[in-house]
Automatic annotation (TrEMBL):
The lineage of its organism: Eukaryota, Fungi, Dikarya, Ascomycota, Saccharomycotina. PANTHER family: NUCLEOTIDE EXCHANGE FACTOR SIL1, PROTEIN FOLDING REGULATOR. InterPro entries: ARM-like, ARM-type_fold, Hsp70_NEF-Inhibitors, Sil1_fungi. Belongs to the SIL1 family. GO terms for cellular component: endoplasmic reticulum. It comes from the Eukaryota. SUPFAM superfamilies: ARM repeat. Pfam families: SIL1. This is Nucleotide exchange factor SIL1. It comes from Wickerhamomyces ciferrii (strain ATCC 14091 / BCRC 22168 / CBS 111 / JCM 3599 / NBRC 0793 / NRRL Y-1031 F-60-10) (Yeast). Interacts with KAR2. GO terms for biological process: protein transport.
């Protein structure tokens, strides 16, 4: 009987060892088929492979990297970094099977091993999530493990501790970024004891650009389309801070994130009124020329949202005045060649066409007309270029005559294009 038990244990060890090896090899090899690079928005020179390549040594897992399953994971809370490496052979052996002397058949022993494996391999994995009938699936899940992530409440505690290192802040903010889309977590994040700290991290220049960027992103995501979270925010204290830092910000990423926060705050008639009291419209328009291209588009979207919340009795007069200023700002931006990307150029131009079509009395600047004529002529000469945008060319040509000039000259203009 003892020999039979030893033979059964040997069979089980070999069987599970083969499964573990196959799962590890499969999960490690497949992700490397596409190994493109990830480059930081803040530092374009900081690039690294999209797929994490494990070794038998602990390595830092960078933001956005795809991590293969079947690895050991760890997190350094002092530095706020995630680490991973290949599972050592001893781990496979000890985590796969630990069977007592028994006369049960192989299947029963395997089921018991699977039941225990998750507890030994992955401490934060809940074995109750696995269906009892899916033996092989359960074993695979236990072997693969899971990437360690800081709990939302722990992350909030970490960021409120002022003696935390920059790396711990980044790791905590990274976890909050994942949680902030959730409405319930958004309400928690918006609690004053946490939210005030996030605002300080986002607006105080003593913090790194990455910490400011991540904090702004968490704020915007937790408030957007989340009325309960927005109710927790003292907008009269928060909004002026972001409007102030926006005026002095030159970093393209931070500009966009700050505007994202402002956009998430301006979601009600009351908040729009506060935005106007703090000269929000003027700040966006006055700083429009220094905004990077994506931020220009975001600023226009905010101004459109503001108009939606204008009171009906005020809408016609206030909208007309605001639209007139927007039209002038767009003309200046285009004629000064502040836009190089065709997609962004088309968005701004479409808005100018819309405003002029609805308000014929708006003045068209001569400098803008010169820019428009040059755009049409230059694009006509560049028709053979690989990046030639025929649709935008036709749109510029048509608007040049129909919207901003003489509609009767359009037919001749199309003939000249042939």
């Amino acid at each position: 009987m003892g020999v039979l038990a030893m033979f059964n244990r040997l069979q089980i060890n070999i069987f599970l060892g083969i499964i573990l090896l196959a799962v590890s090899i499969y999960s490690l090899v497949i992700p490397h088929k596409q190994n493109s690079l990830i480059c930081s928005d803040i530092d374009p020179k900081d690039c690294y492979p999209k797929s994490f390549v494990p070794t038998d040594q602990w390595q830092v897992v960078r933001e956005g990297q795809e991590v293969p399953a079947g690895l050991d994971f760890s997190i350094d809370l002092e530095k706020g970094i995630k680490l991973a490496k290949l599972i050592e052979p001893e781990v496979h052996q000890t985590s796969s099977v630990n069977i007592k002397d028994t006369s049960e058949d192989t299947a029963a022993a395997l089921k018991e091993a699977i039941k225990e494996a998750p507890k030994k391999v992955v401490s934060n994995y809940d074995s109750e999530d696995v269906e009892e009938d899916s033996d092989i699936t359960a074993l695979k899940m236990a072997v693969q493990g899971a990437e360690t992530q800081i709990d939302v409440k722990d992350a909030l505690v970490y960021i409120t501790s002022t003696d935390q290192s920059d790396e711990v802040l980044k790791s905590s903010l990274d976890s909050l970024t994942d949680h902030s889309h959730n409405l319930k977590d958004g309400v928690l994040i918006s609690q004053p004891q946490y939210f005030d700290r996030l605002v300080e991290l986002a607006t105080d220049k003593k913090h790194s650009i990455m910490v400011q960027e991540m904090s702004s992103r968490v704020i915007a995501q937790s408030l957007r389309h989340n009325p309960k979270a927005l109710e927790n925010v003292q907008i009269t204290q928060v909004l002026p801070k972001f409007l102030a830092v926006l005026q002095d910000e030159d970093n393209s990423v931070l500009q966009k994130r700050i505007l994202g926060v402002i956009s998430s705050l301006v979601q009600s008639e009351v908040n729009v009124a506060i935005f106007k009291n703090f000269k929000g419209e003027s700040i966006l328009l006055d700083n429009f020329s220094k905004f990077k291209e994506d931020s220009k588009i975001r600023a226009l979207e905010i101004l459109e949202d503001v108009k939606k919340y204008n009171g009906l009795q005020k809408r016609s007069n206030e909208d007309d005045l605001l639209n007139s200023k927007i039209f002038k700002t767009i003309q200046d931006s285009l004629s000064n060649n502040e836009i190089s990307d065709d997609h962004n150029l088309e968005k701004l131009f479409d808005k100018a066409v819309e405003l002029k079509s609805e308000n014929k009395h708006y003045k068209t600047d001569s400098q803008f007309l010169q820019w428009l004529s040059k755009q049409v002529e230059d694009r006509k000469l560049n028709k053979r270029d690989s990046d030639y945008n025929d649709e935008l060319h036709k749109k510029l040509l048509e608007a040049r005559h129909v919207v901003f000039g003489n509609p009767n000259a359009l037919r001749k203009a199309f003939v000249d294009e042939l």
